[in-house]
């Protein structure tokens, strides 16, 4: 085990990533006519399928958001004329 304390900035970023991921999952479910609370009333197979699709949707959107943020940062770098 490491004795190095956790970076508070990294912890906050992970928390934001987690909140955004849950929000995107809820967005996907809502777009398909469900709330998170509805899932426990669905048959297990339907619940698993919906959540699997929702996780894939959230992962794609998170990747898009991260890519957009990176490229916005990248294109703002000063370019050398040398």
Secondary-structure topology with pairs:
Layout: H1 8-31, H2 44-75
Main attributes?
single chain; 82 residues; mainly alpha; 2 helices; elongated
Structure report:
This protein has 82 residues and is mostly helical. The chain has one domain. It has two helices and no strands. Helix 1 packs across helix 2.
Give the strand tally.
0
Order of helices and strands: HH
Termini separation:
47 Å
What level of helicity do the residues show? Answer: 55-70%
Please tell me how large the radius of gyration is: 18 Å
* Contiguous runs where pLDDT drops below 50 for at least 5 residues: none
Short précis:
The protein is an all-alpha fold and 82 residues long.
């Amino acid at each position: 085990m490491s004795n190095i304390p956790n970076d508070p900035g990294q912890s906050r970023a992970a928390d934001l990533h987690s909140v955004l991921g849950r929000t995107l999952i809820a967005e996907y479910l809502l777009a398909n006519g469900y709330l998170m609370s509805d899932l426990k009333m669905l048959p297990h197979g339907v619940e698993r399928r919906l959540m699997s699709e929702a996780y894939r949707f959230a992962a794609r959107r998170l990747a898009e958001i991260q890519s957009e943020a990176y490229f916005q940062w990248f294109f703002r770098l000063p370019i050398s004329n040398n």
